[in-house]
């Protein structure tokens, strides 16, 4: 079980959260201009790194806020959690 | 037109745990490992959302007579009202006063500013678990650290007890906890607690 620290509520068990996929995937500026392939990449294609991975989580049984978590996919170590308004700690990959 | 409809539902309303009242009373354990479970039905609950830095928040704090808690776990109280932190811009106002009156008062304080005031009294019911063994009962299913060094009277957090999401509020050091599950989960949670309480009837197994 992961122990994830919510930026507002502090450390809570993983069962209190919902997972929301990869973080920092920007919505296309002009979605209408995208080709089908580019749109499919935006909708379906995600990174799958071995190591630190920034992902979105929601504290669903707590404060119901979305935030980002930096997690090592190999060790499951939670490296950091930060608010959506904050940049990824340590910069982008 | 409003009067007859208001008198009707209030008189006719039925708490989500009315059918378990007898069983909750029968589950009472007395003595050094005592624990009791009771329902406090129909407590007024008003969900409040507003930017805590706004003027509307100041007006609401004046209306309530208590500051809005700014941190997870904190509560503030004034007269019949207790304000519980739900999120950075969301609170639950628990009150002994009548629901429509509280909601109207808060709506007026909010005025036209961004935010919302909703009477959600029917959303949850309140279970009170009290007695020397109350903490042990909760610890069977609550992932939170409830030891007095981490959690004490006047604190309230959203968490889970067993599989049920509840708002857990400690009111005194007896300890007495109030659990606020959604109404439709209350039956399950009450049965879960009655079962968890049963072992304290007998002597402690070392």
TrEMBL record, chain A:
InterPro entries for this protein: SoxD (IPR006279), SoxD_sf (IPR038561)
GO biological process: tetrahydrofolate metabolic process
Gene Ontology molecular function terms on file: sarcosine oxidase activity
Name of the protein this chain belongs to: Sarcosine oxidase subunit delta
Species per Swiss-Prot/TrEMBL record: Streptomyces diastatochromogenes
UniProtKB/TrEMBL annotation, chain B:
Name recorded for this polypeptide: Sarcosine oxidase subunit gamma
UniProt xrefs under Gene3D superfamilies: Heterotetrameric sarcosine oxidase (3.30.70.1520), Probable tRNA modification gtpase trme, domain 1 (3.30.1360.120)
Superkingdom of origin organism: Bacteria
Pfam family membership, one: SoxG
Phylogenetic placement of the source organism: Bacteria, Bacillati, Actinomycetota, Actinomycetes, Kitasatosporales
């Amino acid at each position: 079980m992961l122990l994830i620290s919510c930026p507002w509520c502090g450390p809570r068990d993983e069962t209190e959260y919902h997972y929301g996929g990869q973080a920092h995937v920007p919505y296309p500026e002009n979605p209408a201009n995208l080709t089908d392939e580019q749109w499919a990449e935006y909708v379906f294609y995600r990174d799958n790194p071995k190591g630190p991975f920034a992902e979105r989580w929601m504290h669903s049984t707590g404060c119901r806020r979305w935030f980002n978590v930096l997690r090592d996919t190999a060790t499951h170590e939670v490296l950091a959690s930060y608010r959506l308004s904050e940049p990824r700690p340590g910069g982008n990959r | 037109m409003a009067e007859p409809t208001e008198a009707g539902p209030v008189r006719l309303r039925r708490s989500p745990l009315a059918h378990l009242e007898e069983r909750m009373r029968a589950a009472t354990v007395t003595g050094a490992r005592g624990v009791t479970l009771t329902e406090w039905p129909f407590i007024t609950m008003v969900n409040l959302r507003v930017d805590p830095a706004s003027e509307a928040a100041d007006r609401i704090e004046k209306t309530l007579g208590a500051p809005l808690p700014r941190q997870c776990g904190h509560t503030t109280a004034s007269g019949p009202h207790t304000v519980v932190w739900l999120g950075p811009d969301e609170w639950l106002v628990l009150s002994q006063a009548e629901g429509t009156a509280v909601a109207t008062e808060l709506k007026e304080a909010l005025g036209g500013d961004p935010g919302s005031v909703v009477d959600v009294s029917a959303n949850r019911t309140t279970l009170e678990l009290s007695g020397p063994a109350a903490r042990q009962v909760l610890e069977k299913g609550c992932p939170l650290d409830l030891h007095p060094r981490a959690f004490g009277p006047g604190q309230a957090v959203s968490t889970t007890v067993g599989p049920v999401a509840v708002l857990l509020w400690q009111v005194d050091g007896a300890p007495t906890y109030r659990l606020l599950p959604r109404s439709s989960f209350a039956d399950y949670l009450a049965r879960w607690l009655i079962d968890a309480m049963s072992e304290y009837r007998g002597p402690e197994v070392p």
